Amino acid sequence: QMATIRFGPPSSPCREASAAEQAEENEEKIKWDPDKLQQCPYDKNHQIRACRFPYHLIKCRKNHPKLARELKTCPYNARHLVHKHELAHHTETCENRMRVYTEDETDDYAAPFVWGVNTLPQLSPLTRPTNNLGPSFRAPNTLPWLD
Length: 147
Known about the structure:
Shape: elongated
Order of helices and strands: EEHEEHHEEH
Strand content: 5-15%
Helix content: 25-40%
Distance between the termini: 80 Å
Number of helices: 4
Radius of gyration: 29 Å
Largest sheet: 2 strands, antiparallel
Number of strands: 6
């Protein structure tokens, strides 16, 4: 039998969460707990609170320069320090890696970019951009930072 947990006051209509959903929510809270202890990659005897971990990494990197040269930072999470030879595998399997979905181009029929070629339609003198400042104001002929 699956346990259910009710959200909100008992008299209000509310959705019920399964035990699995509740366990997943608790796991997320624990995962991001600022007081959770993490092991320092430079010194295995160091157990650091998650909220202080980035500061500790900077300090410990200075104290262990030889090991610091061997460890590389994960591109998805700066708290992940792995050996050089393991970085490729780590980046493929990192829990913080976000999948990027490619989408179709919005304008499949746009003219291709060619360096030095203007593919935009030319404005005729009649369709020059105008300002709506009124007859007593005029736009400057040159810009001060181009002189």
